[in-house]
Amino acid sequence: MTIAEAAPAKLNLALHVTGQRADGYHLLDSLVVFAAAGDLVRLDPGPLSLRIDGQFGAGLSVEENLCLDAARLAGAEAAITLTKNLPVASGIGGGSADAAAVLRGLARRGTPLPDRPERLGADVPVCVVSEPRRMRGVGEVLDPVPALPDLHLVLINPGVGISTPQIFKALDRKDNPPLPPLPDSFDLGALVDYLQLCRNDLQAPAVALCPQIGDVLTALQDEGALLARMSGSGATCFGIFPDAATAGLAAYRIGTGPVDWWITATGLAAPPAPF
């Protein structure tokens, strides 16, 4: 049977780097949500293969792709089609979300989820869940979070590639404090207030290496974002706006300026159906 599985964009509303293991892996503490914008994965019967289309499909390798790695880790065969709507290597978990969508789709066909999906990447376990979570360790520790309000978001990527290892190498310190204690409940104002107490520890080194990220953050702030922050190791940034109309207008106004950026207004993704 054919399975179609959404691969929503992962957003780190906050990302604290709290340590580094002896093997070099960094320890994280992050509040993660998923946007309605995302890629799409389709699984058809057949031997293992991958076809890629979509706006950003040309930037991906068919031979070396996490979708194929995910199927191999699960020990399953499928003809995979990836529709790549998200920018590549952009800090919103595109490759990890795609791999997680393959794992969910295979699970719907009866293939159990493999042990330790973090072997595919630190973001893969949370992307399998694709619901708001506090993510810790190297991505393998996932804790539920209080119910979040619907978020009206503008996502912007300036179209500049970012090297994640280079960003981590540029960190001044790697033993930062974890997230503050989470409250029992959130409305929009309380969430923004909480996030103001948090950070993305990778943002400052990313801006130093890629000044366009600073331009994106300024554009979001100038349009009235309640909070503007980079996601992951960049270069995608998000702005939280009071309502959908304000977010849509901000995306339009920024998009009509003298920039060639990927820009979309979106909300939060619905949780995936049980699998």
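The above is record 1. Record 2 follows with the same two-line structure.
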Amino acid sequence: MRRLSVVALLLLLPSVALAHAGHDHTAPPGWTWDPAIILPLLIAAVAFGRGWRRLRARSTGGRAGLQRHGIWFAIGWVVLAGALVSPLHEAGERSFTAHMIEHELIMLLAAPLLVLAEPLATMLWAFPPAARRTLGAISMAVSPAYRWASGAVVATLLQAAVLWIWHMPSLFDIALANEAWHAVQHCCFLGSALLFWTAMLGRRGAGASAAADRALAGLCLLATSIVTGALGALMAFATSPWYAGYARLAPAPFGLTPAEDQQVAGLIMWVPGGLVHLGAALLLFRTLIAPPRTADAV
């Protein structure tokens, strides 16, 4: 029993107490082979691949859509894995700019691509029939909460709250200092982004209901561009670093001071991040004003 307790503590210590500060910040950033990151990525890839093959073997029609979903998932998975495993992740421990690029890749590129892939329905086919029925029952049980959380307004508010709360200096410094809290931060960013893009890109009804849904989604995208842009602008115009974890690592990479590094990170959130949301909003509004397609005359 004592040996089991020691083993349990040894297994818990890396996830609870491994600090960013324990890494050598003078060496070039390397790849991150943390099992807590690698295993979920591999499980998701295997489940989607297995389910996709089974669906493709059973499908006589709709293969083009299945092919598109496979491509969206593959690209989204590569972007997500690259953000979390590549040297960018470790570079984010010494540069707020690198950390911001990592977060933007997760929330603005990987998340919408994964939503477009509709992976959960495909992954379900990776399991045997009995397991599919059980998972289907669980899905039905949680669907009311999921529909509420993935509503356009609720998902927009959740993502905005996650962004602002986790960028509070006290919480962000905790994530910088502790790997477990860093993982929680990333899960919050990815989870809120998946709900948000589900609301923005999800299937809609027909007629006036679909138009109203698109209009609401467009307004939520505009609001998000303002909310994230405001946070980025505050960082960009700040004359002193907000986060003690980065301030202690002066100078930042590329010869920047911690304040300049933060200003660049703020610009990345403000300009590219705002443009993604603004562009998506304009595309949605365009569908509202574009004339409906009609069949060519014979």
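The longest helix spans residues 258-289.
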